[in-house]
Amino acid sequence: MKWAYLARWRNLFGPHLSQTGQKITRMNVQQPSLISNHLATTVLKSVCRSCHGGCGVLLHVRDGVLVKVEGDRESPLNHGRLCPIGTVTTDLVYHKDRLKYPLRRKGKRQSGDWERISWDDALDEISRRLLAIRDQYGPEAIALGTGTGRHHIRWVSRFGHALGTPNWCEPGFAQCFHPRVNTSILTFGDFPVSDYTGEVPPACILFWGHNPVLSGPDGETRFNVIEALAHNPRTIVVDPRRTALAEKADLWLQIRPGTDDALALAMLNVIIDEKLYDEPFVTQWTHGFAELAAHVKEFTPEWAEPITWIAADQIRAAARLFARTKPALLDWGCAIEHTPKCIQTIRAVSMLPALTGNIDVPGGWVFGMHGLGRFPSLIENLTPEANAKRLGADRFKLLGGEGADLPAAHIPTLLRAMREGKPYPVKAFLVFGNNTLTTYANSSAVYDALMKLDFMVCADLFMTPTAELADIVLPAASWPELDQLVGLPTVAANVVLAQQKAVQIGECKSDEEMFVALARRMKLPLCTEPVQSVLDAMLASGGLNITFDELKQKGFIKLPFKYRKYENGGFKTPTGKIELYSTRFEQMGYSPLPYYEEPPESPISTPEIAAHYPLILTTGGRISFFFNSEHRQIEKLRKAQRDPVAEIHPETAARLGIVNGAWMWIETLRGRIRQKAKLTTGIDPRVIHVQHGWWFPEQPGPEYGVWTSNANLLTDNKPPYDPAMGTYQLRALLCRVGPADVPTVDTKKVGV
Ligand SMILES: Nc1nc2c(c(=O)[nH]1)N[C@H]1C(S)=C(S)[C@@H](COP(=O)(O)OP(=O)(O)OC[C@H]3O[C@@H](n4cnc5c(=O)[nH]c(N)nc54)[C@H](O)[C@@H]3O)O[C@H]1N2
Ligand SMILES: Nc1nc2c(c(=O)[nH]1)N[C@H]1C(S)=C(S)[C@@H](COP(=O)(O)OP(=O)(O)OC[C@H]3O[C@@H](n4cnc5c(=O)[nH]c(N)nc54)[C@H](O)[C@@H]3O)O[C@H]1N2
Ligand code: SF4
Ligand SMILES: [Mo]
After folding, report:
1. In the structure, what pLDDT confidence band is assigned to residue 30 with cuts at 50, 70 and 90?
2. I need a surface site. Which of 59, 363, 558, 568 has the fewest CB within 10 A?
3. Residue 342 and residue 725 in contact, taking contact as beta carbons nearer than 8 Å
4. Which one, of 343, 349, 347, lies nearest residue 322 by Cα?
5. Domain 192-366 classification at class level
């Protein structure tokens, strides 16, 4: 893993997107077809899980040590390539700060005073304290938390359900991916994915609030996008920032953050008004077209222009280009899920491929996420009464109730139960893979809630500011240290992959193993079978005639794929059609047609706040070198980017005395942080963008600088929430900025 290799990636994903599609020259490596044993080095086929993608990797193991991780050239997802994060896997696995043994806090909370204990002692203590809380307050007083796309995300709910609590959560759930999944299931009967790797490449790609060349799409990889771009499709980018994709796009719609619903409604207006839709498809396969047409009549591009800051003729041009170029696909991201009206925004945006007939066709949107059988979440173990106790489920039915594919608790409601004991007390929080203080909105409020807990457990790879609040800290295995099944939804690569354990670090255990051990120790009736038997059961229930051990030998299996499945039996919705007018939304008491709503904190809705906080804040645009709050310990990645960066237009910066590369402060009604200013004309003078996930492992614990540059000191977890999903505000807030002193601790001293 040479640093020069990373630098090359920076070029590919940075401003020089003209290099799109360029093949990276690989080291001359002998490719084993399955497993080989060459000069005492075993090479295992596996899957990188440092992000949501599933790049095929070869793990080189010598004498029980992972000596090299390289891209698998046989993988249809990455063809041998890795991104900067995947490239430094051995630095992650063998980092000196890895947690290797269970720890028990000796002093008071946040004293930073820890003692090493055995797994037996850790499991005994956790079991005893949880059973006492369950007996006194009921199982729902125990909540579980996890992080995005983790191998064990569903195991968290499985353990919770075995324990009898409906309260588990994940900071992305109401604001990442699941709003798209749940809305799509109700609208289309299934979740559509982008056909980047199918029979024909897309001729037009609409990137909406999504920058997959840095972030990777959900379940595919950034490399598939880059390969599709090499075919030179027409591209439209909806983004407030001039990203590398926007720079090269046919049309860049520089939207005011948080007004995507207005833009989508106006594009629907153009497509319907100018009869650009696919009439036979719409007539045969959609429900409620007449209602939609009548509804969007008033949402003209001229109406949307002052709301979105996008000229009416640009909106028309985008609608025409998307509708007239076939096949076209929509590739959408989490930016449209970070506002409290995300579900209706998603509904409106999702109608663009529906009206233009780009559904389940080569190079369009396809339904294919069905490689694996249903995960045994054990939700059937919850009584109706227990289900009804899920915090927020009564109000947010797409998150926690009947409209949810995998019901989860509403984070602000859960935090209130921790803080105030209402509607009932939550006394314990078990966090498996989430740095809660950095990724939940409104970190100060999160801190207050966590400090009220009677008992907290944190399983992580590293000691984090959040883990420092726990009573017991457990050492988690990273992905090369565990077995896992991965199902990915791309077409050419409609695959199920095996990720396999290559090495053992200290006494680390996979989260799955921890759940099994804890369930056994607590003598729970369920969740006690070995991990591998669950993996085998998933393969069997998916109709795949293979065991996990056999799959490990093969690496991955491809599944057959068919386009236009709806022609045989329709869409899996109540009407059998794509529900432009949603019967299920109507039944649940939500609007059956999408509408526009001004962001709750904006120059228009709260001019009194805007008088003091005149700029619009957006947060969290992804960077190649870090995954959410992770990887700040990895020296090679910190060399690529040492400090957090906020983007500001040069005119705004000049007016406020902010200098390129110097620290600036950013403040909202919730708090104030510092990041380094990057002056760029690629952002509107009225908008500021800050990076999320920042803390500084090199700074002194127990806080590790978590209050210095953390974007979520600025964001809001108070109402209003999305009425169906409970989503809070991570983007489109109001802020003010100014020049800041250098932080007191020098962030250049990375002690790694
Ligand atoms: N390297 C890396 N990869 C990642 C992650 C990571 O942290 N690092 N995180 C993973 C996770 S959890 C997710 S959800 C995905 C997210 O990845 P993406 O879905 O690509 O989302 P972002 O990069 O957060 O934002 C995409 C773009 O939205 C723009 N944007 C900001 N506000 C708005 C708005 O109001 N409207 C519109 N239309 N655009 C807006 C931003 O400028 C940004 O360029 O990436 C995943 N992959
Ligand atoms: N302001 C703002 N906030 C955001 C976002 C934004 O754009 N802006 N994005 C939001 C989104 S889309 C998402 S999905 C969330 C993401 O939020 P999370 O997924 O919760 O991300 P992290 O907080 O980085 O949590 C990852 C933690 O898990 C640990 N970890 C890694 N692998 C393992 C493992 O196998 N086991 C265990 N036990 N631990 C592991 C890491 O060391 C790290 O401490 O953040 C959200 N927060
Ligand atoms: S894109 Fe994701 S899966 Fe691929 S190498 Fe990077 S971190 Fe790993
Ligand atoms: Mo996410």
Report:
1. very low
2. 568
3. yes
4. 349
5. alpha beta
**Strands 455-460 and 428-432, sheet pairing:** parallel
Handedness of CA 280, 282, 288, 293 (dihedral sign): negative
| CA of 7 relative to ligand 3 center, distance in Å | 16
CATH assignment of 15-93? 2.20.25.90
Distance, CA of 687 to CA of 653 (rounded, Å): 11
Q: What is the largest CA-CA distance in the chain?
A: 71
**pLDDT at res. 3:** 30
Question: Using an 8 Å Cβ cutoff, are 459 and 524 in contact?
Answer: no
Question: How far is the C-alpha of 180 from the C-alpha of 108, rounded, in Å?
Answer: 42
With cut-offs at 50, 70 and 90, classify the pLDDT of residue 31: very low
In this prediction, residues 411-416 reach a mean pLDDT of 98
pTM over 0.90: yes
Question: What token pair was written down for 129?
Answer: 């304290």
Tokens 């406020």 belong to residue: 656
Print burial letters for 155-165: b (CB count within 10 Å at least 16), e (below 16): bbbbbbbbbbb
DSSP assignment of 338-361 equals SSTTHHHHHHHHHHHHHHTT-BSS
Q: How many CB atoms lie under 10 A from the CB of residue 678?
A: 17
Contacts of 431 (CB under 8 A, 6+ apart): 144, 145, 146, 456, 457, 458, 459, 460, 466, 467, 470
**Annotated domain spans of the chain:** 15-93, 192-366, 607-739
Nearest 10 degrees: CA dihedral of 99, 100, 106, 112?
Answer: -20
Closest residue by CA, ligand 3 atom 4: 55
pLDDT at 465 over 70: yes
Average pLDDT over all residues of the chain? 91
> Is 386 in contact with 379 (CB distance < 8 Å)?
no
C-beta separation of 534 from 159 below 8 A: no
Residue-level pLDDT at 541: 83
pLDDT at 683 over 70: yes
Q: Kindly state the tokens that stand for 459.
A: 């399983």
Distance CA 178, CA 331 (A): 15
**Checking DSSP bridges between strand 687-690 and strand 484-488, what pairing results, if any?**
unpaired
The ligand 3 atom nearest the CA atom of 71: 5
The finding on whether 219 has its CB within 6 A of some atom of ligand 1 is no
C-alpha 94 to ligand 2 mean position (Å): 20
**424's tokens:** 């009932």
Q: Is the pLDDT of residue 489 over 70?
A: no
Topology (CATH level 3) of domain 607-739: Barwin-like endoglucanases (2.40.40)
Find the mean pLDDT for residues 187-203: 92
pLDDT, tens digit (0-9, with 9 covering 90-100), for 291-323: 999 999 999 999 999 999 999 999 999 999 999
Which residues crowd ion ligand 4, with CB under 5 Å?
A: 148, 172, 176
Long-range contacts at 413-416 (CB < 8 A, ≥ 24 apart): 413/726, 414/143, 414/167, 414/169, 415/440, 415/445, 415/446, 415/449, 415/717, 416/449
Please state, in angstroms and rounded to a whole number, the distance separating the CA atoms of residues 170 and 408.
8
Residue with the smallest CA separation from ligand 3 atom 2 is 51
pLDDT in tens, 600-646: 999 999 999 999 999 999 999 999 999 999 999 999 999 999 999 99
pLDDT digits 0-9 by tens, 220-241: 788 989 999 999 999 999 999 9
Whether the CB-CB separation of 668 and 733 falls below 8 Å is answered with yes
Bridge partners of 45, per DSSP, are 58
* Beta bridge partner(s), residue 579: 287
Can you say whether the dihedral through the CA atoms of 238, 272, 184, 224 is positive or negative? negative
DSSP 8-state code for residue 19: G
Give the nearest ligand 3 atom to 51 CA: 2
- pLDDT number for residue 199: 86
HSE-CB of 160 using CA atoms within 13 angstroms? 32
Task: Report the distance separating Cα 331 and Cα 208, nearest Å.
Answer: 6
Among all ligands shown, which has an atom nearest to the Cα of 84? Answer: 3
Tell me, what's the pLDDT at 364? Answer: 95
